[in-house]
Amino acid sequence: MRRFHAKSILVAAIIVAGCSSGTSDDATLDQREEAVAAADTGALTFEEPVQDDVLTKMFQWWNEAYKDPDGFTTEAFAQYFTDDSIMRINGSVRVRGVENLAEHFRNIQANSDKVVINLPFLRSFSSPDGSKIFTYHTIDAEADGKPSKELVMGYAELRDGKISVIEFLSVDGEHEPYASAE
């Protein structure tokens, strides 16, 4: 198993997502215009985990839907995802479209005993224009009586209030508690 330093992954994800967790006097004109546009459109922007962004709401629903044998439907995924959504994990496209999302997660549901996306996220913030949500979170799972833990980091791109792209890096592992100064 490869070990990744969490801070290195965080820095890489921030660069990939093109996100900024704060404002700066050196902000480009484009960044300032994006922030103004976000305010005009009512896009949700935040710098720490929140409970009302579309990604968190989707994962709250997902955790409940996993417990229901009929929970993963195309209609349910369509509440949170665009019809042409893409889910890419570790650089590979795993799923395209809401119909395939439903099928993909029904297969996971059928082949596992437990999957829980732990909320609130360890870290989460939005891009200045609210079009991307960065997250660092953990997943607890069990299959065939064997527990596993994952560290997941990446972002979701939003379009028209729904998730259009999921781009996550996932590794086996457990997150150590943060020190109070982190």
Brief account:
This protein has five helices and seven strands; from the N terminus they run ααααββαβββββ.
Can you walk through the features of this model?
This protein is 31% helix and 32% strand. It is built from five helices and seven strands; from the N terminus they run H-H-H-H-E-E-H-E-E-E-E-E. Strands 1, 2, 3, 4, 5, 6 and 7 form a seven-stranded mixed β-sheet that branches. The longest helix has 13 residues, at 29-41.
**What is the residue-averaged pLDDT?**
82
Helix content: 25-40%
- Please compute the radius of gyration using only Cα atoms: 17 Å
Which regions have little confidence, pLDDT < 50, spanning 5+ residues? 1-27, 35-41
How many helices? The count is 5
N- to C-terminal separation? 26 Å
> What sequence of helices (H) and strands (E) makes up the elements?
HHHHEEHEEEEE
% residues in beta strands: 25-35%
Please give the number of β-strands.
7
Q: Which outline best applies?
A: globular
Largest sheet: 7 strands, mixed
| SS class | alpha+beta
Task: Name a few traits of the molecule.
182 residues, alpha+beta, seven-stranded mixed beta sheet, 7 strands, globular
Topology:
Elements: H1 6-17, H2 29-41, H3 54-66, H4 74-78, E1 81-89, E2 92-96, H5 98-110, E3 114-117, E4 123-126, E5 132-143, E6 146-159, E7 162-172
Parallel strand pairs: 1-7
Antiparallel strand pairs: 1-2, 3-5, 4-5, 5-6, 6-7
